[in-house]
Amino acid sequence: MKKTLITAITTALVVGAASTTFAxxxxxxxxxxxxxxxxxxxxxxxxxxxxxxxxGSFRGDQKITRYEMAQMVAKAMTxxxxxxxxxxxxxxxxxxxxxxxxxxxxxxxxxxxxLIMLNSMV
Length: 122
Description:
This protein has 122 residues and is mainly α. The protein is built from 6 helices and no strands. It starts with a helix and ends with a helix.
């Protein structure tokens, strides 16, 4: 099953991108600063959740694979400065992509320990 830019934007919301604005340079040549997804995509890039392509583009109109989405989820799981709502979304996404995360070498047991620790901090 392939996901679209909407999935990337959902992930952006997971890491709290909706409330952040940026003064930094545009990370992607094909996401203009007046585009509706600019803040979220820029936040994901700044946080290292998405990388884009070697030519400096994001290509948000292209579908992504479950494996690619799992990579973004794995990166989002490493973030410790998330709200309780964002953490709940990360938990849901990590369950949905558990097989792909395991294939990526992400140790679910270790991640669960980290999530328990994060829960105690919230």
